[in-house]
Amino acid sequence: MKHSIFIILLLTLGFSQSASDAVRLFEMETGYGLRAQSMGNAYTALSDDISGLYWNPAGLGQIKESIFSMGIEHGSAGNETTYLGLPTTAKHNWTKINGLGIVYPFEVAQGALAWGFSFNRIGDSEGITEFTGFSSVPNGLIFYDSDGNESAFDTDATRTESIRLEGGIDQWTTGLSVAVSPTTLVGASLALNTGDDTYHFQFNQSDTEHNYETYPADYDSYDIERYLQTEFNGIQLKLGALTSLGNIKIGGTFSPAYTYHVKEVFTEKETMTYDDGTYENVVESDPGQWTYAVKSPFQFSGGLAYSTTRFTLAASTQYKDWSQVEFDLSDVATLDDEYLDLLKENEIIRSTYKPALDFHFGGEFYLINNLVAVQGGLSLKQSRLENGADSKSVSGGVRLYPDSMVDIQLSYHVNNWEKSGTDEFTPSLASENITQATYQIGFNYRF
User: Fold this and answer.
1) Element containing residue 405 per DSSP (H, E)
2) C-beta of residue 397 within 8 angstroms of C-beta of residue 374
3) Apex CA 17: angle with CA 16 and CA 19, to 5°?
4) Prediction pTM value
5) 250 vs 242: CA distance, rounded Å
């Protein structure tokens, strides 16, 4: 039967930047370096390879030979979502180059001076969520036909939702380290962070129990599909220091606040299908585009390491005050609706997010001196949300030395956390148990 409908409680046309969107740009950052990640990212007081550009640029001064490094990553994200008592398992995989760089130590009369340059993948936004279930909880979908008759398709239906994320942050970094005393190095790195992120949302509501068979509510299914494509970039400065006291090393870094400039493109399509097989596009929007800026929180890190010829133990902590993330309003006209909307989101960030300390522990042990080493690590991350759950990850790796010029690193890292939530289409709680694993292989070549 022919319909001409539009949604009266239109939940899908409105789109704007949110507090969670702002925080997520910085939350996806995980760091890089195969040895570093094998050791639980407890690398602030080590940083004696190319990844020192990220963890502590002062550490580059420990390198005595030129090094070329390269690494590749394969990742897998698994998600078990329970919705209305029904569990659904989904998986998502990816493979990417995650590191390429060089460190060059200069010959100096005394002390140390080293320079490095690298391209690295410092964070991934890869993920997937899928769930389905029959629900009697209203979700507010109400329609008018061409004669002005109102009808609802908002309860006693099967709801299926899928969310897929793809993207991450690439970092182009250059840095310098110099000895300021026989035991102390200082350094700085300047990084261009460029990111891309694709959010793909799909929702289907179907009349599987045949509760909607009378015109104008002869609905068979309702579908909505959304794409949000995000690109962002920003320049980040990091300052570091590293002191050696015999077998003990103490390191620290500071990264001031920096700004991501963001561009988003949003599209959506809604389709209603009726019992007779006909369908109509409720909404098929032209792409909407937004540009805005988001400021990061500042970051401190500190670390301690103890090394002998056979083993290394390390620990570090990183501090970020996530309540200091904010939309930059300096270029937004104060009378615009956008200004008030973003001002409100900044207030939500202040009240919803909190400072957090991440703790990292790692170790390395030579099974055969200068031939085979094994590593292990543990990371504990406090929730950024006031009432959120903490997360933890474990990691491990093996480093092999085919000869004095080459070492090969194999690394494994797994992270697990839980979260739950609702949205406008699925008001019943969906609980997720997420596991993300990455496998990496890379090498260092000395010349």
Assistant:
1) none
2) yes
3) 135
4) 0.87
5) 6
The gap from C-alpha 378 to its chain's centroid, in whole angstroms, comes to 19
pLDDT category, 147, cuts 50, 70, 90? confident
Alpha carbon of residue 196 to chain centroid: 11
What number of CA atoms fall less than 13 Å from residue 324's CA on the CB side? 13
CA distance 285 to 58: 51
The two tokens of residue 261 are 């400039």
How many CA within 13 A on the CB side of residue 302? Answer: 2
Average pLDDT, the chain: 91
Token pair in block for residue 350: 């202040």
DSSP structure class, residue 287: P
- Unique residue bearing structure tokens 């620290």: 252
Instruction: Tell me the per-residue pLDDT of 236-254, one tens digit each, with 9 for 90 and over.
Output: 999 999 999 999 999 999 9
What pLDDT was estimated at residue 8?
39
Place of tokens 């292990």: 376
Per residue in 48-77, pLDDT (tens digit) is 999 999 999 999 999 999 999 999 999 999
Structure tokens at 392: 């933890």
203 pLDDT higher than 70: yes
SS3 170: strand
DSSP structural state of residue 40: T
Asked if residue 355 lies in contact with residue 322, where contact means CB atoms within 8 angstroms, the answer is: yes
Task: Give the separation between CA 327 and CA 163, rounded to whole angstroms.
Answer: 25
State the pLDDT at residue 285: 63
Strands 67-83 and 157-181, bridge-based pairing: unpaired
CB 232, CB 198: distance < 8 Å: no
pLDDT at residue number 283: 64
Type of residue at 332: V
Number of Cβ atoms within 10 Å of the Cβ of 361: 18
Q: Which pLDDT belongs to residue 2?
A: 44
Burial string for 322-340 (b: 16+ CB within 10 Å, else e) reads: bbebbbbbeebeeeeebee
**Rounded CA separation 443/447 (Å):** 13
pLDDT-derived band at 284, boundaries 50, 70, 90: low
CATH architecture of 6-446: Beta Barrel (2.40)
Give me the residue spans of the domains in the chain: 6-446
Q: Using the CB atoms, write b or e for 412-432: b if 16+ within 10 Å.
A: bbebebebeeeeebbeeebeb
Spatial distance between the Cα atoms of 60 and 41, rounded to a whole number of angstroms = 17
